[in-house]
Amino acid sequence: MYIHLGDDFVVSTREIVAIFDYKAKTSPIVEEFLNKQKQQIVSSNSTPKSIVVTLQSIYFSPLASGTLKKRAQSKPEIDS
Phi first, then psi: what are they for 44, rounded to 5°? Predict the structure, then answer.
């Protein structure tokens, strides 16, 4: 299944490692992690509300972390 992260970002749920609130960026541990992974960051044109870490990249998403969590946990509807 795929999840839309906002703007033009769509990733496979299998690739997602973590989803957390953008405010966590102020944590020294998160700040250090993001500084070491600068080349992997894909930023949105909108104001970021969450950070999505995947196996390949780190996305700054304009959607709230709770919204992304719900999208990742929802099962797709299949029309018969």
Answer: -85, 160
